[in-house]
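Hey, can you fold this one?
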Amino acid sequence: MKAVLDSQRNHVVIKKRNTFWFRIKRDAILYALLLLPLSYIAIFIYAPIYGLIMAFQDYNIFAGIGGSEWVGLDVFRFIFQQDSFYRALKNTLVLNVLDLIAGFPAFLTICAAYPLTKKRLWGRNFILSALVFTMDFSGGLIPS
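Sure. Predicted structure:
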């Protein structure tokens, strides 16, 4: 930036260089740093979208994506008519619900364990002792 004094020398007028190419040159290193994440997005997110075309084709590995016959939604109709599809859908939903039921207490345990790391928590020693006791003497570890 150039500082130019006016004739009365009361204040400084600052000329700004806000041209497009000046800013590109000034921030060239930052733009270079953007190349890695942009290439990651292009390779792993946008490039596989081209493969989605295969879902609407009778894909032939030797003909490739461009040479395979276009069948439209026939493949999806075939899949939805199968009894095994609905069994697999039910199994997926059941497993996701069970994972939610099993995973949510683990999340709550982690949230409850954080305050126990604080040294000035009232009753901290008792709570930790109770937790350790129940882990050491659970029903599976007591010999019968």
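The longest strand covers residues 2-5. Let me know if you want another pass with a different chain boundary.
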